C-alpha cells in the first residue's frame, strides 16, 4: 500500500501576530513554528496504517514551504514516515487553497497513492479546503473530519464527526483521502532512537515551479485584528488585587455568590 | 446577484442553520434560490424557488451525488454565488463543488465587506479580507455569524431525480454519548482549557467549580488529551450551555468553544494572553497565570 500524508508547518498559535509589509498575512519575524496540530493526527494514523501493512507498504510525507518546513518534515520522519518530499516554495503563504491542492495533486497523480491523509484544516488559515480539493482533483473518494479510521482489504471505514456529538459512519474503496480531526488517535512523541534513524531518511526537494501550473482564484487583500466589541473589563495587576476585584464583580453582577 | 443557498437536512429534519443562509443573502441583497436534499414534509419557510432532491433516495450524506445535483442546478440557474453553512456538511461539500466549477472558495465568512469577504484566521485572533477573482464564488458562512431569517411563504418546488451512483456508502449515524453530567442545567460552570498545563492541574479547576457550587466543564483539547471526560466538553461537538456564571480557565476561545458558551449570563475568563479571543465574549478578563489565580480565588471563597 502506498500512503501519502500531507503536512503544513504553522506558527505557534499562542503568538502575537502582526501584519506583514503588504498587509496580506502575518510578519514571520520572531515566530516559532511547529507542525499543524491536525496534521499530527494525520501522520499518526498514516504511521499506524503503515505498521499494520508491514513492509509491503510505503509512507511518504509531503510539505510545501521555505526551508524552515524541513523541521516539521523531520518530526514526521521521526514519527515513522519512510521518506519525505519537500516542495520548495518561498511564497507559500500567498497561495490560495486551490493552488496548494493543485501543487500536491501534480505530485500525487504521478505516484498513484492508495491512501492520502491530511489534517482537516490548518490552525492558521482554517479554510478546510485543501484535502477535499485534492481528492476532487485526483478523482478519489474522500471523507472529511474523521475521528475513527480503519482499512481492511482496500475498504476504508471512516467515522466523521458531525455537530452535537453525533458521528456519521461511511465506507469507501481505495484510492481514497481522509482529512483528520483532533481526537482521531493519540499522536506519538518521536523517540530519540527514531529521531536518529530519521536523520538517514531521504528528503526529496522539488522546486514548486515544476508542479504549480495554476493561477490563484482568490486573494487576501487585508490582514488585521478583529474589531474589539468592547464591554469586557480587563483585570490586571497582582494576584491578590485581582482576586478581590473579581469577587466584588461577581457579587455585584451575578447571583451565584451567597 | 443571484445566490444559490444550500440547505441542510439531517436525521429527517430541516436544520435551523439553513435560515442563516437567508440572513447572508439578505445582507448581501442577493436574489436567493435554494437547493437541498431533504423532504417534502420539511420545506423551509421561503416563497422562492427550491430545488429539492429526496433524502430517502439520495441519502443524507452522499457527497458525490449531492455535488452532481448541485452542479445540475448551477447549470440551470447560473448563480453568482453558491453558499453553504460552514458545518460538517458544508465544509465537506463546498470544496468539491468549487473544484468542479473552478470557482474560488471562501471559507467560514463572518461578514460581507466592500470588495470581499471577512474570514477569521490564526485561531480567531486575526481576520482576513478575501477577494475572489472568479465569476462564480463558493462560500461557507460561519455558524452564528449571520442572524437566521425566515423569509416566509411556501417554496415553488422543482423536484430533482436522484442521479444514482456515488462511490461512498453511508453506514449510519452513531448517537452522541450518554451524558453523565448535564451541563445545560448547571447554574455555574468552571471550565478547564489547555492553559491549565497538565492533567493533575484539572483538580484545581474542579475545586473552584465546587467552591462556586457548579460543575466542571472543559474545552476540546483538554478532552482530546483525556484530562477530562468527554461528557464535560463545552462547544459545537460537546454541550451548548448558558449558565448564570461561566468561568473559562486557560481557554483561548476557539470559535467552536465560543459557540457553546457565549450565551452565558456572565463570563469570567482567566488567561495570560490579553489578546486571546475569549476576551471577545468575556465580561471580565483576568490577565494572569490560571494556576496562580484560580487557587487564590478558591481560597478566598472558602473564607
Task: Please provide a written account of the structure.
With 258 residues, chain A is an alpha/beta fold. Chain A is 28% helix and 30% strand. Chain A has a single domain (2-210), classed as 3-Layer(aba) Sandwich (Rossmann fold). Chain A is built from 6 helices and 13 strands. In chain A, α2 links the parallel β4 (58-65) and β5. Chain A is globular. The model of chain A has no long low-confidence stretch (mean pLDDT 95). The mean pLDDT of chain B is 94. Chain B has 8 helices and 17 strands. In chain B, 25% of the residues lie in helices and 30% in strands. Chain B is elongated, with a radius of gyration of 22 Å.
Search tags:
heterodimer, A: 258 residues, alpha/beta, Rossmann fold, 9-stranded mixed β-sheet, two-stranded antiparallel ribbon, 6 helices, 13 strands, 30% strand, globular, B: 303 residues, 2 domains, 5-stranded parallel β-sheet, 8 helices, 25% helix
Give a topology summary.
The complex is a heterodimer of chains A (258) and B (303).
Chain A: E1 2-7, E2 9-11, E3 33-35, H1 37-53, E4 58-65, H2 70-79, E5 83-88, H3 97-111, E6 115-119, H4 130-138, E7 141-152, E8 155-161, E9 167-173, E10 176-180, H5 192-198, E11 203-207, E12 218-224, E13 233-235, H6 239-253
Parallel strand pairs in A: 1-4, 1-6, 4-5, 5-11, 6-10, 7-10
Antiparallel strand pairs in A: 2-3, 7-8, 8-9
Chain B: E1 2-6, E2 9-10, E3 13-14, H1 18-27, E4 31-38, E5 49-54, H2 55-58, H3 63-77, E6 81-85, H4 90-101, E7 104-113, E8 116-121, E9 126-132, E10 137-141, E11 156-160, E12 168-174, E13 188-192, H5 202-211, E14 215-218, H6 220-224, E15 245-249, H7 255-261, E16 266-271, E17 284-287, H8 290-302
Parallel strand pairs in B: 1-4, 1-6, 4-5, 5-11, 6-10, 7-10, 13-14, 13-15, 15-16, 16-17
Antiparallel strand pairs in B: 2-3, 7-8, 8-9
Family (chain B): Belongs to the ETF alpha-subunit/FixB family.
Domain Electron transfer flavoprotein alpha/beta-subunit N-terminal (chain B): 3-174
Pfam families (chain B): ETF, ETF_alpha
Amino acid at each position: 500500500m502506498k500512503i501519502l500524508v500531507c503536512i503544513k508547518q504553522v506558527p505557534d498559535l499562542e503568538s502575537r501576530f502582526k501584519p506583514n509589509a503588504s498587509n496580506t498575512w502575518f510578519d514571520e519575524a520572531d515566530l516559532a513554528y511547529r507542525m499543524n496540530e491536525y496534521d499530527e493526527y494525520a501522520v499518526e494514523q498514516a504511521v499506524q496504517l503503515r505498521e499494520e501493512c508491514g513492509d509491503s507498504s510505503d509512507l511518504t510525507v509531503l510539505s510545501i514551504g521555505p526551508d524552515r518546513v524541513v523541521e516539521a518534515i523531520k518530526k514526521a520522519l521521526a514519527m515513522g514516515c519512510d521518506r519525505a518530499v519537500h516542495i520548495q516554495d518561498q511564497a507559500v503563504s500567498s497561495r490560495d487553497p486551490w493552488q496548494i491542492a493543485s501543487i500536491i495533486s501534480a505530485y500525487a497523480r504521478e505516484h498513484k497513492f492508495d491512501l492520502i491523509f491530511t489534517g482537516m484544516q490548518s490552525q492558521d488559515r482554517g479554510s478546510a479546503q485543501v484535502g477535499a480539493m485534492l481528492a476532487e482533483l485526483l478523482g478519489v473518494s474522500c471523507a472529511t473530519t474523521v475521528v475513527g479510521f480503519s482499512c481492511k482489504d482496500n475498504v476504508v471505514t471512516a467515522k466523521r464527526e458531525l455537530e452535537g456529538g453525533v458521528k456519521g459512519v461511511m465506507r469507501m474503496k481505495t484510492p481514497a483521502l481522509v482529512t483528520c480531526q483532533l481526537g482521531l488517535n493519540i499522536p506519538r512523541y518521536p523517540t530519540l532512537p527514531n529521531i536518529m534513524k530519521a536523520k538517514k531518511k531521504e528528503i526529496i526537494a522539488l522546486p514548486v515551479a515544476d508542479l504549480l501550473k495554476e493561477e490563484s482564484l482568490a486573494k487576501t487583500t487585508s490582514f488585521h485584528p478583529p474589531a474589539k466589541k468592547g464591554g469586557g473589563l480587563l483585570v490586571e495587576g497582582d494576584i491578590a488585587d485581582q482576586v478581590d476585584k473579581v469577587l466584588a464583580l461577581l457579587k455585584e453582577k451575578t447571583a451565584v455568590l451567597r | 446577484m443571484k445566490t444559490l443557498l444550500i440547505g441542510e437536512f439531517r436525521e429527517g429534519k430541516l436544520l435551523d442553520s439553513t435560515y442563516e443562509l437567508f440572513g447572508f443573502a439578505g445582507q448581501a441583497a442577493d436574489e436567493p434560490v435554494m437547493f437541498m436534499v431533504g423532504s417534502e414534509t420539511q420545506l423551509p419557510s421561503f416563497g422562492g424557488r427550491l430545488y429539492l432532491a429526496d433524502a430517502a433516495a439520495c441519502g443524507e450524506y452522499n457527497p458525490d451525488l449531492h455535488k452532481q445535483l448541485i452542479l445540475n442546478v448551477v447549470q440551470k440557474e447560473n448563480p453568482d454565488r453558491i453558499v453553504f453553512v460552514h458545518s460538517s456538511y458544508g465544509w465537506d461539500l463546498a470544496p468539491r463543488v468549487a473544484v468542479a466549477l473552478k470557482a474560488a472558495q471562501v471559507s467560514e465568512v463572518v461578514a460581507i465587506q466592500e470588495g470581499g469577504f471577512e474570514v477569521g484566521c490564526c485561531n480567531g485572533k486575526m481576520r482576513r479580507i478575501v477577494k475572489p477573482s472568479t465569476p462564480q464564488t463558493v462560500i461557507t458562512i460561519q455558524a452564528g455569524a449571520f442572524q437566521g431569517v425566515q423569509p416566509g411563504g411556501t417554496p415553488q418546488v422543482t423536484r430533482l431525480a436522484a442521479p444514482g451512483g456515488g462511490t461512498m456508502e453511508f453506514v449510519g449515524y452513531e448517537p452522541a454519548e450518554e451524558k453523565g453530567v448535564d451541563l445545560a442545567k448547571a447554574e455555574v460552570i468552571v471550565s478547564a482549557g489547555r492553559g491549565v498545563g497538565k492533567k493533575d492541574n484539572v483538580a484545581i479547576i474542579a475545586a473552584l467549580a465546587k467552591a462556586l457550587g457548579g460543575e466542571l466543564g472543559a474545552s476540546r483539547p483538554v478532552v482530546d488529551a483525556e484530562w477530562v471526560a468527554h461528557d464535560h466538553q463545552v462547544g459545537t461537538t460537546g454541550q451548548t450551555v448558558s449558565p448564570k456564571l461561566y468561568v473559562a480557565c486557560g481557554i483561548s476561545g476557539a470559535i467552536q468553544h465560543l459557540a457553546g458558551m457565549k450565551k452565558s449570563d456572565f463570563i469570567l475568563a482567566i488567561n495570560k494572553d490579553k489578546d486571546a479571543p475569549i476576551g471577545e465574549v468575556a465580561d471580565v478578563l483576568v490577565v494572569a497565570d490560571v494556576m496562580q489565580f484560580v487557587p487564590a480565588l478558591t481560597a478566598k471563597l472558602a473564607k
